[in-house]
């Protein structure tokens, strides 16, 4: 199907004249800044934060481009991936008219953002082995379906979605396909970023909150065509990424080697954790994971969750989530943390 971005955009977004900030209107160097009503005396910190930050984060994007292999002009930076998700709804979905397709079990913020924006949600559950139900998705699509959200590796299941199934939807759906790759660093599968030129309706979400260890800084990434990125920049607040975050992320991006070592260590610990859990007779199933967590189906999940919490070990109870009945989601910790976890689980079951 042919893709027509202009036909998907809400009319008010087509007509929108974005706010023009002082830093948009003047680009360059100056010695006296008297255009943005800032405090000329500085700030009460060791570093001066009295000046507004670069609204389009040029320096940060170019550094990320060299790491991600995606041109800076194909990149949007948001206050976490959640900002990008919200902008997608505001750009393409008319409230009480349009709808989106979600494929549970999946990341809960897609539905929360839909509800905030008063956009209808159609749910097409994943199959029993947590893959896309292509026939079900095809049946759910109607002329008002604007977005399809796919998380791969998926949260909370941890498995990767078959690449050929994602491509099938990209080729056949005339709307926007949002592929959330928050956990791609831990996967043996390649990112879809190399396919951006091939699929103009593809938006890829990534984050620095997971493998990069920068969750507190709240920096999410969206990769898409330059036309879609222009839409993002048109809608976003003028200074959505603060200067402190930009400075700290720029510094962190020098640590690629350390991050790669942490990824290797996490994957290795994931396999050890899976092996230890598999030896417990109370564990019924462990979903193969390409993420930094595992979804485990086991006996008495609520009781185990409560016991672990009482021991100061916090995991995620997913036992009431569609297709995750009886499951806990366990993040891969350090070697010491994982040993403590396994010991606590064994103690709980031995006392039943």
UniProtKB/TrEMBL annotation:
A Pfam family per the record: Aminotran_1_2
Organism: Sphingobacterium humi
Source species, domain of life: Bacteria
EC annotation from Swiss-Prot or TrEMBL: 2.6.1.9
UniProt keyword Metal-binding, yes or no: no
Signal peptide: none
Protein name as annotated: Histidinol-phosphate aminotransferase
Pathway: Lipid metabolism; Amino-acid biosynthesis; L-histidine biosynthesis; L-histidine from 5-phospho-alpha-D-ribose 1-diphosphate: step 7/9
Entry keyword set: Amino-acid biosynthesis, Aminotransferase, Histidine biosynthesis, Pyridoxal phosphate, Transferase
């Amino acid at each position: 199907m042919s893709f027509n971005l202009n036909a998907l955009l809400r009319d008010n977004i087509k007509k929108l004249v974005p706010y023009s900030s002082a830093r948009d209107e003047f680009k360059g160097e100056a010695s006296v800044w008297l255009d943005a009503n800032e405090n000329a005396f500085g700030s009460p910190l060791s570093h001066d934060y009295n000046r507004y930050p670069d609204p389009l984060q040029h320096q940060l994007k170019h550094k990320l481009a060299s790491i991600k292999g995606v041109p800076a002009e194909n990149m949007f930076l948001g206050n976490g991936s959640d900002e990008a998700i919200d902008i997608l709804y505001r750009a393409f979905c008319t409230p009480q008219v349009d709808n989106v397709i979600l494929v549970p079990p999946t990341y809960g913020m897609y539905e929360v953002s839909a509800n905030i924006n008063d956009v209808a949600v159609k749910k097409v559950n994943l199959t029993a082995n947590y893959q896309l139900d292509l026939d079900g998705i095809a049946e759910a699509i109607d002329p008002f379906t604007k977005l399809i959200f796919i998380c791969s590796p998926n949260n909370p299941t941890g498995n990767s979605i078959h690449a050929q199934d994602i491509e099938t939807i990209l080729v056949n759906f005339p709307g926007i396909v949002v592929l959330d790759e928050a956990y791609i660093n831990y996967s043996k599968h390649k990112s879809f970023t190399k396919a951006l030129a091939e699929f103009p309706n593809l938006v890829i979400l990534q984050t620095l909150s997971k493998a990069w260890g920068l969750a507190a800084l709240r920096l999410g990434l969206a990769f898409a065509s330059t036309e879609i990125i222009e839409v993002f920049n048109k809608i976003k607040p003028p200074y959505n990424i603060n200067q402190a975050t930009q400075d700290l992320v720029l510094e962190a991006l020098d640590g690629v080697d350390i991050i790669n070592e942490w990824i290797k260590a996490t994957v290795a610990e994931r396999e050890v954790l899976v092996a230890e859990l598999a030896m417990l007779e109370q564990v019924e199933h462990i979903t193969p994971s390409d993420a930094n967590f595992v979804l485990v189906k086991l006996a008495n999940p609520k009781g185990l969750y409560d016991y672990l919490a009482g021991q100061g070990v916090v995991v995620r109870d997913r036992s009431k989530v569609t297709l995750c009945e009886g499951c806990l989601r366990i993040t891969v910790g350090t070697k010491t943390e994982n040993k403590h976890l396994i010991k606590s689980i064994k103690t709980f079951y031995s006392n039943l």
